[in-house]
Specification:
- Keywords: Golgi apparatus, GPI-anchor biosynthesis, Membrane, Signal, Transmembrane, Transmembrane helix.
- One of its GO terms (cellular component) is Golgi membrane.
- It is a multi-pass membrane protein.
- Involved in the lipid remodeling steps of GPI-anchor maturation.
- The protein has 12 helices and 2 strands, in the order αααββααααααααα.
- By secondary structure, the protein is mostly helical.
- It folds into 2 domains: about 15-30 and about 140-370, Rhopdopsin 7-helix transmembrane proteins, CATH 1.20.1070; about 35-120, no CATH class.
- It is elongated.
- Helix 3 (about 40-50) packs across helix 5, helix 8 (about 210-235) packs parallel to helix 10 (about 265-290) and helix 10 packs antiparallel against helix 11.
- A two-stranded antiparallel sheet has the order 1-2.
- The structure holds zinc ion.
- Zinc ion (ZN) binds near residues 11, 149, 199, 203 and 332.
């Protein structure tokens, strides 16, 4: 769950994150951008770190010199400006900034970005540390992507509830549930909800910890989604068969995440791993759907193609409209209906499998009586 944005960000759902992955871009973002490399930004940042006030040079603002002072970061008169530790001081005067753990350093970066962009006259927005200059809302760095990540989360929760309702209405076949994959879809929903939660947190506040949790959650989601695709496509109903298919993927995925947490610092490797898992999953669903002539094949294919189409938004990677809606946030918006469509397909699949099981039972009983 962000790529052509300068790096690849892994987010989205498996299926629905796949596009991201496909372009991907994302697993290692380029931190330096033209905005933060500029001299006027660097000067502003140095001033802010030393004095607690963000201001551009007179030249940068064409004489309209302004200054934004951060009360928490202004050194006491008797103190020594720029002392070590001051940059990491947490802000305390605004509850939303305190809650999201904004520090003097991150606040200085934000205020200098705002000042530099405001001082531009007609020039295009520039990226800072790999991100467009978004307007912060209640302390959240990317408010649109944050809210839309939560909408995706709710869409998965709703999808799971809809499946539970559908399965509850299905008749038992020989005393057993007619749809044997309900438990699997429960776990699938949990992995998605977890991934979208950390996606929302990361969009609220981009820092090392939130970035890693977002990436690890996305990798785990990709791994589990591949397991779901293989188990459903291969029609594995017994625990032994499901474990046989799942074990190597779980082993690989956990090892990969552990490696990312410890000694692998090469995000291009992570990108290749995610691309491969995403492609395998997508290919599995598409090939199986067509070969099995699934009655809801159209929904399945529309979901897959919809993801591909929505991904184009990421490719364009345009700056945020109104300082809020960039290509990435619109991609998150596009995945919400696709998630609902996906769960609608899962519901159809449950009814389809149950129907086949009942037909098979009827045929068997007729055979016994004839
Ligand atoms: Zn995102």
């Amino acid at each position: 769950m962000r790529m052509l944005r300068g790096y690849l960000e892994l987010r989205g759902t498996i299926l629905f994150r796949l596009p991201l992955l496909l372009l991907l871009v994302s697993v290692g973002r380029t931190r330096a951008s033209s905005g933060d490399r500029s001299e006027d930004f660097s000067g502003c940042l140095a001033n802010c770190r030393a004095s607690g006030c963000a201001f551009l040079s007179a030249q940068a603002t064409k004489g309209a010199k302004g200054s934004t002072c951060i009360p928490d970061c202004i050194p006491p008169a008797s103190g020594e400006a720029g002392e070590g530790g001051a940059e990491s001081k947490l802000l305390t005067t605004a509850w939303e900034l305190r809650a999201l753990r904004w520090t003097c350093n991150s606040e200085c970066k934000y205020q200098c970005m705002v000042q530099r962009e405001a001082a531009k006259t007609g020039a295009a927005p520039e990226k800072y540390y790999g991100k467009w200059p978004f307007k912060r809302v209640l302390g959240a760095q990317e408010p649109a992507s944050l809210l839309l990540s939560l909408l995706n989360l709710l869409a998965h929760a709703y999808g799971l509830l809809s499946l539970r309702r559908t399965v509850a209405r299905l008749p038992l076949v020989e005393g057993r549930a007619a749809y044997p994959y309900t438990g699997l879809w429960h776990l699938y929903a949990i992995f998605n909800i977890n991934a979208w939660l950390w996606s929302a947190v990361f969009h609220a506040r981009d820092c090392k910890v939130t970035e890693q949790l977002d990436y690890y959650s996305a990798v785990a989601l990709l791994g589990f989604s591949l397991i779901v695709a293989l188990i459903r496509a291969l029609g594995l109903r017994t625990e032994a068969a499901q474990v046989t298919v799942s074990a190597p993927i779980i082993g690989f995925t956990t090892t990969h995440i552990f490696a990312l947490m410890t000694f692998i610092d090469d995000y291009s490797w992570n990108m290749k791993v995610c691309l491969t898992m995403g492609a395998l999953q997508l290919g599995t669903w598409a090939i199986w759907g067509v070969r099995s002539r699934h009655p809801s094949l159209l929904k399945l294919l529309v979901a897959i193609l919809g993801v591909a189409g929505a991904t184009a938004l990421e490719v364009f990677d345009f700056p945020p409209y109104f300082g809020v809606f960039d290509a990435h946030s619109l991609w998150h918006a596009a995945t919400v209906p696709l998630v609902l469509l996906w769960w609608s397909w899962v519901n159809d699949d449950a009814r389809y499998v149950a129907q086949k099981a009942l037909k098979g039972k009827d045929v068997a009983e007729k055979g016994k009586t004839s």
